[in-house]
Amino acid sequence: MHAIRVLEFELVRESLQRFCETTIGAAHAQELAPTFDSDEVWRRQSLTLEAYELISRHAAPSLGAIRDVRQAVDRASKGGVLGGQEIFVVGDSLVAMRSFKTFLRPRREEARGLWRIGEGLAEIPRLETTIFDSLEPNGEVKDGASAQLAMLRQRKKTTSSRIQERIQSYTTGSTRDLLSDPIFTVRDGRYVIPVKAENRGKIRGIVHDSSATGATIFVEPEDVLQLGNALREIEAHEREEVTRILTALSGKVGGVARETIEGLEAAGLMDLQVAKAKLGFDMKATAPLKANGATLQVQGGRHPLLDQAKAVPLDLRLGGTIPSIPMEASAGGPQSADPVSVLITGPNTGGKTVGLFVLMAQAGLMLPALHVRLGPFSQVWADIGDEQSIEQSLSTFSGHLKNIAEALAGLKPGALVLLDELGAGTDPAEGAALARAILLEMHAKGAVVLASTHYGELKAFAYNTPGFSNAAMEFDHKSLRPTYKLLMGSPGASQALRIAERYGIPKPVVEAAKEGLTEQQQDLSRMLEQLEQAQRQARIAQGEADRRSAETKRKEAEADRKLGEANDIREKASARAAEALQDVLREIRLEAARLFDDLKKNPRDTDRVRQGLKDLQEIGGEFAKDFAPKPKARSKTANLTKGMSVRIEGYPQVGTVVEDPRGDNVTVQMGMLKMTVPITSVSTAEAARPAAKPRVNLGLQKAQSATTEIHLRGMRAEDAIEQLEKFIDDAMLAGLPAVRIVHGKGEGILRKAAETYLRRNRGVATFREGDPAEGGAGVTIATFK
Q: pTM above the 0.90 mark?
C-alpha cells in the first residue's frame, strides 16, 4: 500500500515490536495493517482499550517465556523425537500461557474481548509437571526421570570412581618409576598413564597414543581396560534410556499438539494486544471515540514518530458531521453538512500526522493526542513528498499526477486523500485550475481531502465552495517564522516579501515587488494579516475564558465533593453515636446490677450503692446529651459569627466558626479538620458541664478527651504503629467520624506504614492524602465506617 510507505507506518510497526515479548507477537506487529471495515476498526480498538485498562489496574504476568515452538510441536505430533531443550522450552511456554489465562479468568467480565482470545491459551499442567520432573533447564534428562536411568547413572558413577582409583594406583604405587610423569590422562574417553618408551611391556595394557618425540607412550592398563569396557556398556544403556525418555516426552507433547499450537497462536495475539496498550502508555495516547461518517477530529495531536516534548500539538477537524466538542469556531466560508475537505496554506501542513493517525487508529492503535474522534475511512491515498522517479523518467510534477490519476481511478466514497503542494511544479495559472478541478472531482466521488497549496486562487475557491474549508499554519510576525500551529477556518496571508527582506534581499527590490502587486492583491494581503491577528487575539481571549471556566468548574466540583463528604460523615457519626450510646447503656445496666448484688451481700452499704447509682445517672445523662441523634435547637445566621464556639449535628466535639456565614453554609474548624456544612446543622455550644464522677469503665472518658489528630513524626515505624493503633481505637470508641494523622513527608516510611495499618483495620472506611490546606502529603485523613 503506497500510503503505508510514504506515511512511514513501518516505523510505527517497529515501535510496536519493541513492546512485544514474544517472537510470535512481534511477527504479528510486523504484519500489522489498517483495516477499512468499520466494525473491525472498533473491534480492534475495543481490544486495545481493554488491554490498556487491564494493565493499568493490574500487574499482568509476563509472556516472555513463550517461544515459537510450533514447528517442534508439529514434528512431535508426526512421531519425531525432540531434543531435551526443545521439550523444556515447550514446558516453559505452557507455564506462561497457563499463568496468563489464570490471571485473565477472574477478569473476563471486564475484558471480554481479551478473554475470547485468552480462552485459546493452553492449560496442560500435568504435562508441565512431567517435563520439569524429567528435564533440567539445559535439556539434560534428570536422574529421577526413570528408575532405570537413576540406577544406570549410579552404576556409571561407581564404575568411574573405581577406574580413577585403579589408574591412580599406577601413579602412586610401585609402577611410578616406570612413568614419565606421575599423572594419568584421558585419550578418546579412555584412562591412560604416560609410560616411558623404554619400559614398554612392563605394564600390561593397550597403547592408545605416543608423544611427539616417541619418548612416552600412553597405556591403558589391562585391569583399567576391563573397567573401561564396563563403563562404555553402562553409557550405552544410559543413552538408550535417555532416548526412550525423550521419545516418551515427545509423544506426550505430540499428543497435545493441536491445543499447544493454538495456544501459542493465541499467546501471540495476546502479546500484540498488550504491546498496543504499552505503546499507548509510552506515547501518552488516547483511544479514539466514535463519530459518524468518514471523519477525523483531533485536539492536541502530536506526530507519533517525533519527540513528544518538542512536537507542536495539532488541532484539526476533517470530514463530515461530528458530535459537538469545543473547538475553535470556523471563520471560513459557507458551512455544509457534506464531508469537509481542508485546504491548508503554509509549511509542514501536518498531512503526515493526519495520515498516520488514521492508519494507526484503523489498525487498532491508540493515538498521541488529548482527544480524538474518528469515523473510519474506506481508503487512504497519500501523495506527499517528492514523487519524482528517475527510473520511469518522470518529473516531480509528472510523478504527482501519476499518483493522483491512480487515486481518481480507484477512489471510493469515504476515502481520505492527502495531497502535498497540489498543482505545484507547472505554470501557476494552469496548476491552480488543474488543482481546483481535481479537488472538485474528488469531492464529487465522496472523498475527504487534506491538501496544501500556495496558490492564492485556491484560497478563494475553498472559501466559496461548499464542502471545503481553509486553514493555515500560524506565522509569527515578529520572528517571521512559522509556529507550525494549524489554524482552522482561515487562509494564511503570504509572507514571501517579508521573509525575502529578512534574508537580505535589498529593500528597493522588495518595494519594487510590492508595486508589482495589484491594489486588490495588496488589500487582500492586508486583510488576511488583520484577520490572522484578530483570530490570534480571539484565541488568546477564548483560551483565558476556557481556563477560568475550567477552574470555576473544578472549584465547584471540589466544593460539592467536600460537602458530600461532610454529609456522609455526619450521617455515619450519628449512627456511630447511637451505637455507642447503646453500648454505654448496656454497661450502665451491668454496673447497676453489680451494685444491687453488692447491696444484697452487704445491706448496710446503702450509702455507697446510692452514690454509685447517682454517679451512673449523671454519667448516662451527660453521655446521652452529647451522643444521642436527637433534634437540636437551630441557630439563625445572624447569631453565628467568626470565632463562635458551635456544635455540628452528629459530632460530639465543639468547633469554632472560621468566618462569618455566607448564604446557607458556614465553615467550622473542628480540631485540625475544617469543613463547610449547612447552617441548619449548627448550634451554639452549651457552657461546659461539671465533670461527673466516673465510677465505671464506660468509655465516656474516651469521648470527652478524644482528639482528632495524632503526630507520628520522628518515631520509629514500630512505635508509630503502636501509638496509631491506640489512637484509632480511642477515636472509634469516642465516635469520631474522621481523624488526621500527621506523619510528615521524609522518605515516606511512616506514611506507608500508616496506610498499611489503615488498609488492614476493618473499622476504617476510607483514607486519603491531605489536601494542601490540611498538610498535603505529610498528612493522611482517615474516616470511619
A: no
